[in-house]
Design a protein that fits this description.
The complex is a heterodimer. Chain A is α+β, with helices and mostly antiparallel strands. Chain A is built from 2 helices and 12 strands. The longest helix of chain A is centred in the first third of the chain and has 40 residues, at 51-90. Chain A starts with 50 loop residues before the first helix and ends with a strand. Chain B is α+β, with helices and mostly antiparallel strands. Chain B has helices at residues 9-48, 75-78, 145-148, and strands spanning 50-54, 69-73, 87-92, 95-106, 111-113, 124-126, 131-135, 151-152, 156-165. A 7-stranded antiparallel sheet of chain B has the order 1-2-9-3-4-7-8. The relative contact order of chain B is 0.16. The chains are: A alpha+beta, B alpha+beta. Chains A and B meet through helix 1 of A and helix 1 and strand 4 of B.
Amino acid sequence: MRFWGNPYYTVNRGANRGDRKKMARTKPNWLSLGPGGAPVGVPDVTEWSTSTEVTFLVMAQQAGAGRRYIRAFVSGFFVAVPVTVTVLDRFAYVARVEGASMQPSLNPEGNVTGSDVVLLNRWSVRNYQVRRGDIVSVLATKRAEVSRCKRIDAYPTVHTVARSPKNPQQKIIKRVIALEGDFIKTLGYKNRYLRVPDGHFWIEGDHHGHSLDSNSFGPVSLGLVHGRASHIIWPPNRWQRIEPSLPPERKPLLNWHGDTTEEED
Amino acid sequence: MKSREKLWGRDRARSVGAEMFRRALGKTLGFVSYTIQYGCIAHCAFEYIGEFVACSGPSMEPTITSHDVVFSERLSRHLCRIENGDIVITKSPFDPHMNICKRVIGLEGDKVCTSGPSDIFKTHQYVPKGHVWLEGDNLRNSTDSRSYGPVPYALIRGRVCLKLWPLHHFGALNQSPTGRVIKRSN
């Protein structure tokens, strides 16, 4: 991409026809500028040599350079921002895990030595296909509370990021325990045994006492799943791929889709 | 560097072929990069500005009838400016691949009446935090929050602001005909 041409004339050579983005202003030959800033093709150069005209021409040339910068910036902006936003929305993004609800899988030392940073894969959940044992990030249905009130009937998240009160776009990271149709035993939910409704799933944090999850607010709608945590990318000594693993005592008792009963394998 | 005139025979054919290949490759790469760029711009437009939705079903009559095309804007959802009385498109809580179009009757904290018109004792429910209460305009033929409860706010996709088809009904949408929208004091 050639930017450093003289903006005040174009050369209509065959090679330049491909440069559609180049400024194609043509102007009469008498305003063409030569290497010294003075115009070429003018028979008598002395009438241009007064300081005001030369200043005007130099300023015009600099304005042209400024306009080139602005044009380059704007065109780069309109390429970079949509591509970045699309990649973050559709493919993957990176997030820091806060809180102790997923110990020991994530943040094993808490926030003392620095939290884990995970890579969240959005492409793999584009059809809302999650597996039991996956660690997923879910849009929380509650706004972040200031940690002075710890009501269990509220749906707060463990990640108390400071946000404006009207913004519910908090995300929580938990493990998928059961999918729709599964019959499970709950830990502290209002029903002891529960069949997960259609279109919902059941999430729990690995650290059972310190986790606000489906045992507090019930099954979560599949439309709220945001991404699947696939890798831990920071700190470097914890680089690993996160494998789906379900603790054996939390496996569903039965999988029941209406009138067909399948055993959980 | 040899100029093209000095190559003869097979060398000339090879260099011409290589040049054609390079040109085709350049054109393909240019085309692919344009496609990626405009695809990303289209994604941003549909995700953050608005999208066109074709509605089906009788639950929002007479405001929106089946096979109407409406425009739903996404900005108020991202800026959390959904109000009572807005018609919203949300993901269905029971099937994330399906979308439902209903009116917001109550936001979090509002007290909604859950009993039907024929019940003697009126029951009320408070909409929990982070949820909204949705009802269709056609109360007799609509499954909405009265049957499946409040819907999480994060499932809302956009707010319907304009009806585009049929053309004789082009324009903004009407207020709720049911009178069940909760009025907020502020």
